[in-house]
TrEMBL record, chain A:
UniProt protein name: Peptide/nickel transport system permease protein
Compartments where found: Cell membrane
Annotated PROSITE patterns: ABC_TM1
GO biological process, one term: transmembrane transport
Transmembrane portions of the chain: 12-31, 103-124, 136-160, 194-212, 244-269, 294-320
CDD domains to which the protein is assigned, alphabetical: TM_PBP2
Family: Belongs to the binding-protein-dependent transport system permease family.
Major location category of this protein: membrane
Keywords of this entry: Cell membrane, Membrane, Transmembrane, Transmembrane helix, Transport
Chain ranges of the ABC transmembrane type-1 domain: 97-313
Organism whose genome encodes this protein: Murinocardiopsis flavida
Record lineage: Bacteria, Bacillati, Actinomycetota, Actinomycetes, Streptosporangiales
From TrEMBL, chain B:
Any Pfam family: oligo_HPY
PROSITE patterns: ABC_TRANSPORTER_1, ABC_TRANSPORTER_2
Protein name: Peptide/nickel transport system ATP-binding protein
Keyword terms of this UniProt record: ATP-binding, Nucleotide-binding, Transport
GO molecular function: ATP binding; ATP hydrolysis activity
Gene3D superfamilies on file: P-loop containing nucleotide triphosphate hydrolases (3.40.50.300)
UniProt xrefs under CDD domains: ABC_NikE_OppD_transporters
TM ranges: none
Taxonomic lineage: Bacteria, Bacillati, Actinomycetota, Actinomycetes, Streptosporangiales
Family, similarity comment: Belongs to the ABC transporter superfamily.
Any one Gene Ontology BP term: transmembrane transport
Keyword Transmembrane helix: no
Keyword ATP-binding assigned: yes
Region (Disordered): 1-22
Length: 327, 710
């Protein structure tokens, strides 16, 4: 089992390297940082622009392969390079990664668990009122892009705040700047800010997971082993939770890997719309600013996240399914 | 609705006086209806079943698929889906179970009344260890018990059902166990809390015969240990004969005959039971008479006609039969009852199945007299092997072993001859078939079909040989294209081989008549036919091109007994009329005895014994053949009770890792009684097929010795 995981880990490292390299090459060949300097008022001299670009390893007159080599050598020493404004990319990543991770982790946990719970219960109540309304809700959400969900939630929150005459639901930034309210006050403030963006991600995940879990659950609902469990003396409810749901969770874990990429895309919009200064918002800004190294760094971060999710689901899969463990 | 409790002629329930003890389980007037969804009609799966079960008694419930035997026991256990409508009464120790809530019922299930299901492969939760699943049963009824004590009890139970190294095997997952071992685990779960009643729903149907014998032995042990009463649901009349005290025969959701096993088998009073008993091919009877075919199919449970549900298929039907449904009336012994208005007549005239059922006349084969040696060889297989490489790795595949699926087998089939190829699952009989049908050069050895060597032919010649070599598959449900009408299915081989359109039409009609179907039904689709009819369509398709050699891969194993008899009779008749040769693959040795002229017994990719049917069944010489024949229960209660079965230890070894020397030595009962010097040969040398006593019998055993086992 350990050998299996190590092998998977090596695979993932290769994939991360490839994904990041492609992202760098794409960014370096399409983005044009030179424009940033040429548009400055007053326009700097040609030599200083060249010098500046050379110093940042962004000069399009240097062959792409050479720039890539320099960048790669830096990355090998854990240096992701400098931004177009000549600031450390590493520092920016350190600051922004946490913001995105908080959002993703919370959104994923809430979205997956409610999705799995509602999906499983829908299967048990197939074609009953609960199932029908859960199905309708899931398809409604699946038909809407995350952007629209985010904006719609903002509108609803604004209406709610107006109606109640409070500022309970916050939808700008991650926290109130310069707030001094002690630990609990700060926590409450962060939760007020975090509620809507987390909900945006969770709602989209819930829709996908509830459908998938419902189907998986329906497959095992009439399985012989559930009947065996009941014949042993378990109540239907216990047999369904302990034997049916436990088995039906296995394929869902694999599904998690597939949805994770979509989730990251959703995070980009959510951060942008709710004014969170995370990796998602940063990549959008970086493309506008022709910031090659920032784009490459975000791609690296995304690749690491996706692979971490895959690795996690490998471990979960092996933990849930003994049949994989042995071989 | 007619009341259908066990009743005498005077409409008082038959009270069976077997000691003073009151019944443990009393089922009366049980009705189960599945309401049809949307506009579909309701399905009346069980229509008034009643029986009593006393402590320590074994009741057999017999019937074909769809007769309601499983549904009635699931209703007893409270395991039917909530939408099923159940009425009547199920009393356990006098306490009514129907109408109890899930909570209350859960306290009974697994404690006072437990169940063993048919398919052990899917019956255990794949993600928990077998030990934990047994311990869960113990703990759920005894919350005070600590985890450690429950585990200890689980190990005891595993030992009781004969799992070696129980303490280690406790931590095994179900997929690491073979089918037979999983069924042992299911039995351990069923007896974990010393239940008063164990319901066994076809507990051995999914298992091979040698494993079936082991599991039946475990069930007997379980009964001895718990003293529980057992309800044994099965379609196998042999299992019933040896195992049960009383029998209840079900047809179309009702009990049609009930009584002591000897009464029901020897003094049968209901034509359906008579038909069933006559339809089973017998392992123990030498003379070959046609099987009793029951015409037609079981009725649909959605729209039952008035009167006796068996009337449309009954040879004794008269007008009164279609007027009202007969109740169970006492016939003969006080405990024997049958639901037939002519039961009295049957008793007076002492009719047997052969008297009332019109037996088909099997044509005499005039050419059977020609000695075998003088007949043409249609198939010759010489030292055939089929080895599958075992690969590992996703990107860089490497060979880590070999599965010896077929490992050097030799046989031939002459004109107008049937060779039965028998063996348990995984012995390589299907692989042999596929190798022959592929007409490709084998990995080693030769296959010669009708004088043409496989592998040495070009595409044209292969095409021509396929005309003479046709196949009938096992599962008639999946081997016919559901989107093609029957006419197209049968016409396809004809068109492929360039028959003209008018000749195709007349040939298809002719074929349908030959296999006993209506040419008028040619426009229908396969799903409109029953299993037996579909297998007839499969046979018609195989016969379309007038083949000389027909390869049959378990052609009747998916069919019910009464239907199977008709198909076997048809195959026998066709063989004589059309001068066919059959290669008949089956796991059921009774069917082989009935239909085959010669038989080859396979074990782990090798033929261990081959010869003419009479010699092999009368005096098998290889210990495996002896065990195989001995393991099959005979549908004759007295005979079956008198027999001792040779029990084989353990399971079939993996064909990827066969034992050295003789591949059967790991399970061989003979090997264990040899002295070490004699064992040496078994351990080191692979025995070849050597002729034994008879003129046409050879066994691959160093110490072959003919022995009577049936």
């Amino acid at each position: 089992m350990g050998k299996f995981l190590v092998r998977r880990l090596v695979n993932y490292l290769v994939l991360i390297f490839l994904a990041t390299s492609f992202a760098y090459l794409l960014a370096a060949s399409t983005l044009n940082p030179r424009v940033n300097y040429e548009q400055l008022q007053p326009k700097p001299s040609q030599e200083s622009i060249e010098m500046r670009l050379d110093a940042l390893n962004l000069n399009d007159k240097t062959p792409l392969a050479q720039r890539y080599g320099t960048w790669l050598a830096g990355v090998a020493q854990a240096d992701l390079g400098r931004t177009v404004e000549d600031k450390s990319v590493n520092e920016a990543v350190a600051r922004k990664a946490g913001v995105t991770l908080r959002l993703i982790v919370l959104g994923t946990i809430i979205g997956c668990t409610t999705g799995v719970a509602i999906g499983a219960y829908s299967a048990v109540r197939q074609y009953k009122a609960f199932d029908k309304s859960a199905t309708a809700a899931a398809f409604f959400v699946l038909a809407i892009p995350t952007v629209v969900i985010a904006v719609a939630l903002q509108v609803l929150a604004a209406w709610f705040n107006r109606a109640t005459g409070t500022q309970f639901l916050q939808y700008g930034g991650e926290y109130t700047a310069n707030l001094d309210a002690g630990f609990w006050g700060m926590l409450l403030d962060r939760m007020q800010h975090g509620l809507l963006p987390t909900a945006t991600l969770a709602i989209a995940l819930f829709a996908a997971f509830s459908r998938y879990q419902r189907n998986m659950m329906l497959d095992v609902l009439n399985a012989d082993f559930v009947r065996t469990a009941m014949a042993k003396g378990l109540t239907r409810r216990r047999a369904l939770i302990k034997h049916a749901l436990r088995t039906a969770l296995i394929p869902t874990v694999t599904y998690f890997t597939f949805t994770f990429g979509i989730l990251l895309a959703g995070t980009t919009f959510t951060e942008k719309i709710y004014g969170w200064k995370g990796m998602g918002a940063w990549v959008v800004d970086s493309i506008v600013r022709n910031d090659v190294h920032a784009v490459a760094a975000v791609s690296l971060f995304m690749a690491v996240c996706v692979m971490a999710a895959s690795f996690l689901s490998d471990i979960l899969y092996a933990w849930l399914d003994p049949r994989v463990r042995v071989s | 609705m007619t009341s259908t409790d066990t009743r005498t002629g005077t409409q008082t329930p038959v009270r069976e006086n077997r000691g003073e003890n009151t019944p443990v389980l009393e089922v009366s007037d049980l009705f189960v209806t599945f309401p049809g969804a949307a506009k579909a009609p309701d399905v009346q799966a069980v229509r008034g079943v009643g029986y009593e079960l006393r402590s320590g008694e074994v009741l057999g419930i017999v019937g074909e698929s769809g007769s309601g035997k499983s549904v009635s026991s699931l209703a007893t256990m409270g395991l039917l889906p909530p939408h099923a409508e159940i009425s009547g009464s199920v009393r356990l120790h006098g306490e009514e179970l129907l109408g109890l809530g899930d909570q209350a019922m859960a306290r009974k299930r697994g404690k006072a009344i437990s169940m063993v299901f048919q398919d052990p492969l899917s019956g255990l939760t794949p993600v928990y260890t077998v030990g934990d699943q047994i311990a869960e049963t113990v703990q759920v009824h005894n919350q005070a018990l600590s985890k450690g004590d429950a585990a200890k009890r689980a190990v005891e139970l595993l030992e009781l059902v004969g799992i070696p190294n129980a303490a280690q095997r406790y931590r095994a997952f179900p997929h690491e166990f073979s089918g037979g071992m999983r069924q042992r685990v299911m039995i351990a779960i069923a007896i974990a809390n010393d239940p008063d009643v164990i319901i066994c729903d076809e507990p051995t149907t999914a298992l091979d015969v040698t494993i079936q014998a082991q599991v039946l032995e475990v069930l007997k042990t379980a009964q001895r240990e718990t003293g529980a009463a057992i309800v044994m649901i099965t379609h196998d009349l042999g299992v019933v004969a040896g195992f049960v005290d009383r029998v209840l025969v079900m047809y179309a959701g009702r009990a049609v005959e009930v009584g002591d096993v000897d009464d029901v088998y020897y003094r049968t009073r209901m034509p359906y039971t008579m038909g069933l008993l006559g339809a089973v091919p017998r392992l123990d009877l030498e003379e070959r008479t046609p099987l009793v075919p029951i015409k037609g199919n079981p009725p649909s449970l959605t729209a039952l006609p008035p009167g006796c549900p068996y009337a449309p298929r009954c040879p004794l039907v008269k007008d009164a039969c279609t007027e009202s449904e007969p109740a169970l009336y006492q016939v003969g012994a006080s405990t024997h009852a049958a639901a037939c208005i002519r039961a009295g007549e049957i008793e007076e005239n002492a009719w047997t199945a052969a008297d009332i059922y019109p037996l088909p006349e099997l044509p005499e084969d005039a050419e059977a007299a020609v000695p075998r040696a003088e007949r043409e060889v249609v198939l010759e297989v010489n030292d055939l092997i089929k080895h599958h490489p075992l690969m590992k790795g996703a990107v860089f595949k490497r060979r880590v072993g070999t599965v010896y699926a077929v490992d050097g087998i030799t046989f031939d089939i002459r004109e107008r001859e049937t060779l039965g190829l028998v063996g348990e699952s995984g012995c390589g009989k299907s692989s042999t078939l596929m190798e022959i049908l592929s007409l490709q050069a084998p990995q080693r050895g030769t296959v010669v079909v009708l004088g043409k060597q496989a592998g040495g032919m070009n595409a044209r010649q292969r095409f021509a040989v396929r005309r003479d070599l046709q196949v009938v598959f096992q599962d008639p449900m999946s081997s016919l294209d559901p989107r093609m009408p029957v006419f197209e299915i049968i016409a396809e081989p004809l068109r492929t081989h360039g028959h003209s359109a008018p000749s195709v039409r007349s040939r298809v009609n002719e074929l349908l008549t030959v296999v006993g179907l209506e040419p008028a039904h040619a426009a229908r689709y396969p799903q409109e036919f029953s299993g037996g009819q579909r297998q007839r369509i499969g046979i018609a398709r195989a016969l379309a091109l007038d083949p000389k050699l027909l390869v049959l891969d378990e052609p009747v194993s998916a069919l019910d007994v009464s239907i199977q008899a008709g198909v076997i009779n048809l195959l026998e008749q066709l063989k004589v009329e059309l001068g066919l040769s059959y290669l008949f693959v089956a796991h059921d040795l009774s069917v082989i005895r009935h239909i085959a002229d010669r038989v080859a017994v396979m074990y782990l990719g090798k033929i261990v014994e081959i010869g003419d049917v009479e010699s092999i069944y009368a005096t098998p010489a290889h210990p495996y053949t002896q065990a195989l024949l001995s393991a099959i229960p005979v549908p004759d209660p007295e005979k079956e009770r008198a027999r001792t079965h040779i029990l084989l230890e353990g399971d079939l070894p993996s064909p990827a890792n066969p034992p050295s020397g003789c591949s059967f030595r790991t399970r061989c009962p003979k090997f264990t009684i040899l002295d070490p010097a004699e064992q040496e040969a078994c351990l080191t040398t692979e025995p070849g097929l050597e002729p034994v006593a008879g003129d046409d019998q050879a066994a691959a055993c160093h110490y072959a010795e003919a022995r009577v086992v049936v």
